[in-house]
Amino acid sequence: MRLRDYLRPDLVLSPLRARDTASALEAIADRLAEAGAVDSRQETLAALAAREETHTTVLGHGMALPHATLPGLHQPLILLALAPEPVPFGPAGTEPVRIFFTLLSPPGFEGEHIKILARICRLVRHPGFVDDLMGSPDPDRALALVRSVDEQHV
């Protein structure tokens, strides 16, 4: 299982312009709906917000991993969003976020969902990944970097 199986060029949001958690999740839900990846913007936003209220998805190092289970999907999908300016995301005192990996999975894919979360978390620990990703000049290069670093991990 590789992240390339879940990444789509139309699901890269760059630049993400947001002022807080709510506006970041709204922009992510908007892109997912605009791309036709989800049936309902509102249901997507509600699922992501509910997860964030339960437990923050901030990973540190300027990254967050909003994720949820969403009926109507046929397989998991990942949206990558890059914010040129750090977004206050999560509870007070949490490091602002510039890189968002959003994972949505249909019910019944819990095992795969967990494996994808783990693969994304490995990227955070890869030397230079966060800086390189933020330096990507366009969405195509950002996706190529994610795919390249993901391939380096077993």
Keywords:
6-stranded mixed sheet; alpha/beta; 154 residues
Major sheet size, sense and barrel closure? 6 strands, mixed
Terminal CA distance: 10 Å
Question: Measured on Cα atoms, how large is the radius of gyration?
Answer: 14 Å
Overall pLDDT: 92
Structure classification: alpha/beta
Q: Shape from CA axes?
A: globular
Uncertain runs are: none
The number of E-state strands comes to: 6
Helix content: 40-55%
Series of secondary-structure elements, N-terminal to C-terminal: EHHEEEEEHHH
Discrete helix count: 5
Q: Strand percentage, roughly?
A: 15-25%
Architecture overview:
The termini are close together. Strands 1, 2, 3, 4, 5 and 6 form a six-stranded mixed beta sheet that branches. It is built from five helices and six strands. By secondary structure, the chain is α/β, with parallel strands linked by helices. Strand 2 (58-60) and strand 3 (63-64) form a beta hairpin.
